[in-house]
Amino acid sequence: MFFDFDSYVIKSEAKPLVEAHARFLVQNPQMKMLIQGNTDERGSREYNLALGQKRADVVKQALMLLGAKEAQIESVSLGEEKAALRRRLRSLLRREPSRRHAVLGRVLR
Question: Whole-model pTM above 0.90?
Answer without folding.
Answer: no
